[in-house]
Amino acid sequence: MAAKDNQQLQFPQLVDIETLAGLLGTSIRHLRHLVAKEKIPYLKVVGVLRFDLAEVLAWLEEQRHPAKGERTPRVAKRRPTPC
Predict the structure, then answer these.
(1) 8: which DSSP letter?
(2) Domain spans in the chain, listed from the N-terminal domain onward
(3) Mean pLDDT of 39-58
(4) pLDDT tens-digit map of 1-29
(5) Chain centroid to CA 40: how far?
């Protein structure tokens, strides 16, 4: 199969559930739960779960919550001086 204009097909880097669990530091059970709830991008290749690392990284960025900015220190209120 010749590629048009010398374009090469680029296949995504797919990993299995065990590998992804190790990379994310989570359990296989938790990943299966995320798949069942369709909360994480996944593929089924011949009935076997696979994950595209680029899609998972994009998904992780979407899950990021911005850090709270540093709070400004509270200034104690001055009590009126007795006259």
Answers:
(1) P
(2) 12-63
(3) 95
(4) 555 556 788 888 999 999 999 999 999 99
(5) 8
